[in-house]
Amino acid sequence: MELALTRRQYEFVNARADEVLFGGAAGGGKSFGQMADALIYALRYPGSKQLLLRRTLTELDKSLVRVALSLYPREWFTYQKSEHTGRFSNGSLLDFGYLDKESDVYKYQSAEYDVIRFDELTHFSEATYVYLISRLRGVSDFPRSVRSTTNPGGAGHGWVKARFIDIGPPDTVYRFTAGSRIFLPSRITDNCFLTRADPGYVKRLENLSEKDRKALLDGNWDLFEGQYFTEWDRRRHVIEPFDIPREWRCRFTMDYGLDMLAGYVIATDGFGNDYVAREIYEGKDNGGEGLVVSEAARRIREICEGLDIYAYIAPPDLWSRTKDSGKSLAALFGEEGVRLTKAPGGRVSGWMQLRERLRPARTEDGSVRPRLRVFSGCVNLIRTLPALCHDPARPDDVALRPHELTHAADALRYFAAACPRSAAPASKPPPRCDFSFQKPRPYPSGYGERIKVI
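Now predict its structure.
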């Protein structure tokens, strides 16, 4: 039997990681790649057991089952509709399953599988995904993995993005204590079979709304339903670090509480363009320990070392007096050598200022780009800012939950509110400051080595 695969489908079939995610854009050949991989595995490992999942029975019957019946040779494969099970002539099994409700996951409580496959992974919850990983077991020595396909969007968009996309660039195996993961992106331009057979498909995708077009045509993971900062585009807003000129003005802005210290050094050029250059992100909300004022001030001094910081911007609630000492947290920071500047407290007005900076605009050199861009080392800001949603009760505001996502954005909001953009650039350059370049940490600590898949 000859099986024609695209280059990206071939890479999916040969990916060697405990968890593999394939896809990103519509028309990239995800479902065919998944079914081809299941066939190859079943034939390669006689007696193996695989589970293939969709969210509903209708989706299962109208997509994966149809692909299997058209692709798999009848002399090798039979499908029992009543049991939703496919049997290969060499004894391998392929169960077709669906999970209408979260509790349906317990139908597989005593099951054993060598490979579990999710089609449209963002339609499932993280709890379902993690639970089913435990069903990878057995006495055989077959290689075991979870292999998924999906487009951006859906109820599980956030956790899938955090698990596979935010950990680093694609096409790279990342090793963790609990196993390894890889994301293999695929776009319609990677699927020569579809573009030849239906050249008008790309045109139809281009007629979608901007948000849907970016998600389905471009495979943009930073867009989803209910997203607050729809202006965010990783390709435009995230840049590689460079040496900041000495005459640019530098400020530090932060959101602080015992749960988290999120702080950023922001450098502003003579035309009012802002560059988020350095990041602190430490506290209970990212698995660490909460920092008391003295510890937080020490970390701020460390990240700002060698810089002439024009202002340390902080939320207004730090000026409330504490019951224990009668002093405000702002005063305690001052005693530690970090004299704070109070930011305006209006949430919505601050968000509007920040959105203006993120929106692409024509600049002094004639190019169109955002007024605020982020160095690639600020990984937590890059991860959390595009994940924020509208508050259902107050659509102009950012939702307060999940709380862990709000810290970095709040720090930027205080900066935007305290430093509103003027209509024209300053007539003279700001005071000189010494910016010592800090090599960025491209990934959060603890992610381990990167292994290139060839």
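The first helix runs from residue 7 to 13.
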